[in-house]
Amino acid sequence: MLLKAVFWDLDGTLIDSEPLWHNGEFEIAAANNGTWSEDLGWECSGTPVPDVARRMIEHGCTLSVEEIDRQLKQYVFDQEKIHMPWIDGVTDVLRALKGAGIPSMLVSTSPRPIVENVLDAAPGLFAGYVCGDDDAKHKPDPAPYLLAASKLGIAREDMAKCVVLEDTLVGLTAGAASGATTIAQTCTIRTDTSAGPQFASINGYAGIDPAALDGFVRQRLEA
C-alpha cells in the first residue's frame, strides 16, 4: 500500500457528537439570558469552543468566555461518558486499518479529556492523538495535522500518502493545507462542503476500508 496513515477529525467524522455540542449550547444559553438556534450551532461547527462562546455572548449569554468554555466541554464530556455516539461503520474501518498495519491518529481541537475519553472507548485502535490543548495552532491552520504526522515520523513531503478525514470546511482547509489527501465525510454535517478543498467526498463508511483509502491516495498521486 502507498497509504502511510489516516488522520481522523473527531466530531462529525468519528462520532456524531455535534448534536451534543448544540444541546449544550442551547442549555447554557437558555439558563443565562441568551438566545441560540440550530443554525447558529451548525455555523460554529468545527471552530474552537472559545469562538463559539464569543458568538453565544453576542447573542445575549451573560457568562464569560471562560465559563461557557468550561461548561460546554464538561457537558459534552459527561454525555460521551454515558454513550459514545460512533458513526455507523467507523470502528470497523479503524479495526481494518489496524489489521493492515496502517496507523490512525485522532486530530481534534477538543480538549485532552474529551479526546482521551474517545481513545479509551476504542482501546488500541489509535496510534496517538493531537488535541486542542497541544502547543499547535488550531484548524484551519495545518499545524495539528503536521504535528500528528511528525509523531509518526512522516515527513511533510509524504503527506499526500496520508488520508485526512474531516467534515467541516475549517477542518477540510486544515487537512488540504497540510498536503494530505483530504476526504470530506458528509453523513452528519448539515452545511454544504462541496466547494471545499478536499480531494473527494464520502457519505458514511459503507465500502470504506484500507484498500479504498489507499485508492484515494493512488488516484490523487496519478492525477
Automatic annotation (TrEMBL):
GO MF annotations in UniProt: sugar-phosphatase activity
Family matches, as InterPro entries: HAD-like_sf (IPR036412), HAD-like_SPP (IPR051806), HAD-SF_hydro_IA (IPR006439), HAD_sf (IPR023214), PGP-like_dom2 (IPR023198)
Xref: SUPFAM superfamilies: HAD-like (SSF56784)
UniProt keyword annotation of Aminoacyl-tRNA synthetase present: no
Keywords annotated in UniProt: Hydrolase
Xref: NCBIfam families: HAD-SF-IA-v3
PANTHER family for the chain: FRUCTOSE-1-PHOSPHATE PHOSPHATASE, GLYCEROL-1-PHOSPHATE PHOSPHOHYDROLASE 1-RELATED
Protein name, per record: HAD family hydrolase
